[in-house]
Specification:
The structure holds two protein chains of two kinds.
Chain A (H helix, E strand, L loop, with lengths): L37 H7 L4 H13 L10 E7 L3 H4 L2 H9 L2 E7 L2 H6 L7 E3 L3 H13 L6 E3 L2 E2 L2 E6 H8 L8 E2 L8 E4 L1 H10 L30 H14 L8 H16 L8 H6 L3 H4 L2 E5 H15 L6 E6 L9 E3 L2 H12 L1 H9 L3 E2 L9 H9 L19 H12 L3
Chain B lengths: L4 H11 L10 E8 L6 H11 L1 E8 L2 H7 L6 E3 L4 H9 L9 E3 L1 E9 L1 H7 L5 H9 L5 E3 L6 H15 L7 H4 L5 H4 L2 E3 L4 H10 L6 E5 H9 L8 E3 L6 E3 L2 E4 L5 H11 L2 H11 L2 E2 L24 H14 L4 E8 L7 H13 L14 E8 L3 E8 L3 H11 L10 H10 L5 E7 L9 H6 L7 E5 L5 H10 L4 E3 L5 H9 L3
Parallel strand pairs in B: 1-2, 1-3, 6-7, 6-8, 13-14, 13-16, 16-17, 17-18
Antiparallel strand pairs in B: 3-11, 4-11, 5-8, 5-9, 5-10, 5-12, 14-15
Helix pairs in contact in B: 15-20
Chain lengths: ~425, ~500
């Protein structure tokens, strides 16, 4: 016992006390401040003052070596992609690699506009937030983050069968058309312009005229999003709506962007105060009343279906997806800010168990050649008895205006201050 | 400062000679809503299992302290974080909202005595409840919205349903929501949920209903304190859901906070919550006990600005104190004869309670003044509603033939203002241009008016003139057609 040898990745070798052997236990970044805390010291004293002194030296060196195995606690700040790291199987696989991830949840834009100090990595859900972070880090002279793109998942409008069927009724447009899939009908194509038309009319669900089908809901027809000031999915949805409302043209000047933002603002703010956890509300047993159309990520829906299949042997055919016809591939960027973050980033890119688990959690993974075809994804869903959505693959977020203009539009509509 | 808790613990265990070590003890002070007194036993278990002690300091309305920013707690556990978010946003801090985790939820609904519920029919709406309250047939308790977050959320729900647009309540709509009828039945209005339940229990024979969280009503029904359990109504036109978020106020305490929420969102704690507090689990994959399987209906969109809530509270304060008067100034010249006056009569019939007047219904305690005019004032009648017979007496006034000559719009309005006492609004309806009595200019020249006029113009009415005069009084004008006269009267009847 008590044997270990300290290394210091930062170069200034710290020699550990008393007969130290194998370097196994790594702690990155000295958490100095904890030693000032009375409670911590109180717990430590019984372990022996000498040991404490040794431990401090080891911590200060940044690396602690112990037998057994390495356990690094890696701190990350993430949004919807926390669902990957919160998964028990992912945690088990990472623990076997000596990594424990501490998750701090925040909206993607929250992550981008607030300090990233103290985190080993950040993982916003979309490129605009990642870009903002990289710009901020560059301006503040921080080391440029290493970027990893382990998986992706498109934005979808998650809905309920009764609602989708009314939208698919010829009497309402139709606003959506069912996809040709084998098995249960879970997916619909939705040209955004048709949906935006219905939203613009300000009609309510119970006034949507579909013969023999009246939805018992006097709320306005809307897609509900999380807070525009903080989330990537709602910013992406704003981009989709604005693109359509602007005749499929991306605004090029600040004046155009602001004018367009003012034009679409009523469509995005009629929902009032946004709910915080859109997927949670939608997937709740009461979800149909809370968010009959919710803007979420495909992986959140597919993970629910895969869990349901595992638990009950059947798909949840009450819940369906509406795919905006303008395809939205949001490729989230894992940004490693420290060496510990780098190590985690490498692992999620290369570890076959983690890549398999990503599929099981509903993510689309990149093929071996780095392409975004849906081979593995389709194969996986088929093998598990889920139909494969025919969501085409196209360029990332081509409908989004440039970052500064998107930011202006978000601030204008969300009054983000 | 980020604590590598797990790493430290492994280290500790090894230094101490490889004995298993309990997790690091953490104590978080929590500003909590007194509604959460029922989670005490769960928190004891949380402390034993995770080493995290949530030391709850119960207050009646944590939103006040949260909004003022004067709290000194590590975390907060209110019924909802909506008010906090609106304040932060109003203060320009919408970009850095504190971390918040939904622990459980419960909808704000209505518990009704079975006999009264039977009279409301199947799947009643807030509008049906307001209609009965206006008629003096339904008396209810609801926490005071000016002092209770739950009371305010309930009021927002009712007002959103009353506005009836299907969207979130806006500043423009809030001054016209017809809440008078609903609030006519609001007889118990204490500041807290606990007081509300004890007052209701004491007066369960004379009070018909209580607006509260589903969980509170289920607990009340199970308490054995009621002679007969309340029927729980999930209003058809929607409800507001409370999500009991645990909010991290001091970011330095994140580790303890994360450990606590992870455990509270876990299966064991979530089941305990459903079984012991009758709130609905936040974890979607858990099977619910029978009593929590009732569909809650649709969530109403909640307004996204503090200004709307402030305006709504101002409306509430006015309506729940003093007397209220609506003066109807109605054009009965010959041009109104036929479909126009018939529409007007049916609008009055609806407001008087034939069928359902919903939110707009004439209500107990309200003074209704009806003034018919043509070239001169033809008739003026005023009633203060104490029962249906008072309301019915107005039918004869609007039932008179529309056969007058001339249209003295502004003289009639001038006379209407002489009947105004206290908190009132004037509804002016005309279908023609002014051709007798004083001119609009003379009316405007007579000085500032104490209460607003809302004008409805149809047919040959001079919309520009109506608009100008209405705006000068603080009101506005709407242009309408015969077909939508009834809805125009409804829309404008609650404006203040």
């Amino acid at each position: 016992m008590g044997q270990g040898r300290a290394r210091n990745r930062r170069g200034s070798g710290t020699i550990s006390p008393g007969g130290v052997a194998e370097p196994e236990f790594t702690v990155v970044e000295p958490p100095r401040s904890i030693f000032r805390r009375k409670r911590f010291l109180g717990v430590f004293v019984p372990a022996g003052l000498i040991a404490v002194a040794g431990a401090i030296a080891l911590f200060a060196g940044g690396v602690m070596a112990l037998p057994l195995r390495e356990v690094v606690v890696v701190n990350g700040r993430l949004a919807s992609k926390a669902e990957f790291f919160a998964d028990a199987e992912v945690r088990r696989i990472l623990m076997a690699q000596g990594i424990q991830v501490s998750l701090d949840l925040a909206g993607s834009r929250d992550i981008a506009v607030n300090s990233t100090d103290g985190y080993d990595f950040v993982f916003p859900s979309g490129r605009p937030a990642a870009l903002l972070i990289k710009q901020r880090l560059a301006q503040s002279g921080h080391r440029q983050p290493k970027m990893y793109k382990p998986f992706f998942s498109p934005i979808v409008l998650a809905s309920y069968r009764e609602y989708a069927e009314v939208l698919a009724d010829p009497a309402t447009g139709p606003v959506v058309t069912p996809q040709n899939t084998t098995g249960p009908r879970l997916y619909y194509d939705m040209p955004m312009d048709r949906f935006v038309d219905v939203v613009e009319r300000g009609t309510t669900w119970d006034r949507l005229a579909a013969p023999n089908r009246v939805l018992p809901n006097s709320n306005r027809v809307l897609a509900q999003t999380s807070d525009l000031c903080s989330s990537n999915s709602s910013a992406t949805y704003l981009g989709l709506v604005a693109f359509v409302a602007n005749g499929n043209v991306i605004p090029q000047t600040e004046a155009d962007a602001i004018a367009l933002a003012r034009k679409v603002k009523p469509l995005l703010t009629a929902q009032g105060l946004p709910a915080e956890d859109m997927a949670g509300g939608y997937l709740a047993p009461d979800g149909q009343g809370l968010a009959p159309i919710a803007v979420i990520y495909e992986h959140q829906y597919l993970a629910h279906q895969l869990r349901t299949l595992e638990r009950t042997g059947r798909v949840d055919d009450r819940r369906v997806l509406l795919y905006p016809a303008a395809q939205v591939q949001t490729v989230p960027e894992f940004l490693a800010l420290t060496p510990a973050g780098d190590r985690l980033g490498e692992l999620i890119m290369t570890n076959p168990d983690l890549r398999r688990r990503a599929l099981e959690l509903g993510f689309r993974v990149f093929e071996a050649d780095g392409s975004v075809t849906t081979g593995q994804f389709a194969e996986f869903l088929t093998a598990h008895g889920l139909p494969v959505p025919s969501s085409g693959i196209s360029d990332t977020e081509t409908f989004l205006p440039s970052l500064p203009l998107l930011e202006k539009m978000i601030a204008e509509i969300g009054e983000c201050g | 400062m980020r604590v590598r808790t797990a790493a430290l613990l492994v280290l500790l265990a090894l230094l101490a000679g490889c004995v298993a070590s309990p997790p690091e003890r953490v104590r978080l002070t929590v500003l909590a809503d007194s509604d959460l007194a029922d989670v005490g036993p769960l928190l004891d278990e949380l402390r034993r299992e995770t080493g995290v002690e949530l030391a709850l300091e119960y207050v009646d309305d944590p939103d006040v302290e949260l909004a003022s920013g004067r709290y000194r707690h590590d975390a907060a556990w209110p019924v909802t974080d909506r008010y906090l978010h609106l304040r932060e946003k109003a203060d320009g801090r919408g970009n850095a909202l504190p971390t918040s985790t939904t622990v459980m939820s419960s909808p704000l609904v209505v518990g009704v005595r079975p006999a009264v519920a039977a009279r409301l029919g199947a799947t009643p709406s807030w509008a049906d409840i307001a209609d009965r309250a206006a008629a003096g047939e339904l008396r209810f308790g609801m926490a005071d919205p000016t002092g209770s977050g739950s009371g305010l959320a309930a009021l927002v729900g009712v007002a959103t349903a009353a506005a009836g647009t299907g969207g979130a309540l806006t500043s423009e709509q809030v001054s016209c929501v017809a809440l008078g009828g609903f609030l006519a039945g609001h007889v118990l209005r204490p500041r807290t949920s606990a007081e509300l339940i004890s007052q209701f229990t004491a007066r369960q024979d004379e009070v018909d209903a209580v607006v509260e969280h589903e969980s509170t009503l289920l607990a009340l029904n199970a308490s054995g304190h009621l002679r007969e359990p309340l029927e729980i109504i999930y209003p058809r036109d929607g409800m507001v859901l409370s999500s009991y978020p645990l909010i991290l106020l001091d970011p330095a305490r994140r580790d303890g906070y994360l450990r606590a929420v992870a455990w509270l969102r876990g299966e064991h704690a979530q089941r305990w919550i459903m079984d012991n507090t009758a709130r609905r689990a936040a974890n979607p994959s858990l099977e619910r006990p029978q009593r929590l399987r009732t569909p809650i209906g649709n969530a109403l969109y909640f307004p996204d600005s503090q200004g709307v809530l402030d305006a709504l509270l101002a409306v509430y304060r006015r309506l729940s104190s003093g007397t209220h008067q609506v003066v109807f100034v109605l054009d009965y010249s010959a041009s109104m004869a036929g479909p126009r006056v018939e529409r007007l009569r049916s609008a009055f019939a609806a407001l008087s309670g034939s069928g359902t007047g919903g939110f707009a219904r004439f209500h107990v305690g309200e003074t209704i003044t009806v003034l018919r005019f043509a070239g001169t004032v033809l008739e003026q009648r005023e009633v203060t509603v104490t029962g249906q017979s008072d309301v019915d007496s107005l039918a004869a006034v609007v039932g008179a033939p529309a056969d007058g000559r001339g249209t003295a719009v502004w003289s009639a309005l001038e006379q209407a203002y002489r009947s105004v006492r206290g908190d009132a609004s004037v509804v002016l309806m005309t279908d023609g241009e002014n051709n007798a009595g004083i001119s609009a200019a003379e009316f405007l020249g007579a000085g500032k008016r104490p209460v607003p006029t809302y004008a409805i113009g149809l047919g040959e009415a001079d919309q520009a003139e109506l608009g100008e005069v209405a705006r000068s009084t603080g009101g506005r004008a709407v242009e309408t057609t015969e077909a939508s006269l009834e809805s125009a009267v409804r829309e404008i009847r609650g404006c203040r």
